[in-house]
Amino acid sequence: MKVSVILPTLNAEKYLVNLIGKLQEQTLRPHEILVVDSRSDDGTLLMAKRLGAKVMSVERKDFDHGGTRNLAAQKTTGDVLVYMTQDAVPQHDRFIEEIVAPFADTKVAAVCGRQIARAESNVLERMTRDINYPELYIHKTLADLDRFGIKLFFFTNVCSAIRRDVFLQLGGFPAPIILNEDMMIAAKCITNGYAVVYNPRASVIHSHDYSLKKQFKRNFDIGVSMRMNEWIFQYARAEKEGGRLVSEQLGRLWKQGNWTWIPRWIAEAGAKYVGYRFGVSYKKLPVRIRRKFSMHPDFWLNYDKSQIVREAVIFKAEAQSVSNH
């Protein structure tokens, strides 16, 4: 089994020595590592080449979470595509071995791993990672919808793997998409009869300590992505899962005696909810407000007319051609 690792980057020079070094030390070494850079201002491309990775560039204004990853997939040859983010680091040398292990079951189309918060992360961030990424191995199919609700499609491209043949069959990630491309590909896999696995043994160190403003912006983009992919609402609604997470967080804060964090928790929950609701209602907002509310303002300049969209159409046509042979 050949594994291609795809790393989208932007000003990632400070991360690459550690990240690529860890990948090259894996018990199952990648067949190739492709760095897809959005015209970084630092030495990302030179560092990636120096460390033995393949590189390609896209214009920063044309970056799209789905389309850019689709373009990268075309430049690789592995049987399995492993997607990571620049600020995630494998926790151990068996990460790739573990993230591809569930493919021993031919019905498994995609796998994601566990995120463990950095030691310096705050209480709320560590708690959120612990809730969303438990130590329990989870195998999910459409038959589990009543059990999981919208969580059935929970998936993360911080550390994920997907069979190349299934990826092509399903047309890759949706594009253009502002965020949540990982959730959408998982949903496509599951609703097409495949299984998706969460394997906590495939673990990485990764977390963010976002400000309230960034929490608002991120959740605005999540709301936008959900509205642009309304078909997913026929299965479940995200608000219910958001409410469950908020309730569990409050319970943990109380039980652990972290009462001083409750005001911050209230503020974060409010920022996330308001951001999400604005995102779901983005069509009512002028473009200048959408850009102001978004973590990806350039998305709104390119929406419906970027090179990413045209390339995604080509990619889908190629995928259909492959599936017809």
TrEMBL record:
<dbReference type="InterPro" id="IPR029044">
    <property type="entry name" value="Nucleotide-diphossugar_trans"/>
</dbReference>
<dbReference type="Pfam" id="PF00535">
    <property type="entry name" value="Glycos_transf_2"/>
</dbReference>
<protein>
    <submittedName>
        <fullName>Glycosyltransferase</fullName>
    </submittedName>
</protein>
<feature type="domain" description="Glycosyltransferase 2-like">
    <location>
        <begin position="4"/>
        <end position="168"/>
    </location>
</feature>
<keyword id="KW-0808">Transferase</keyword>
<dbReference type="GO" id="GO:0016757">
    <property type="term" value="F:glycosyltransferase activity"/>
</dbReference>
<comment type="similarity">
    <text>Belongs to the glycosyltransferase 2 family.</text>
</comment>
<keyword id="KW-0328">Glycosyltransferase</keyword>
<dbReference type="InterPro" id="IPR001173">
    <property type="entry name" value="Glyco_trans_2-like"/>
</dbReference>
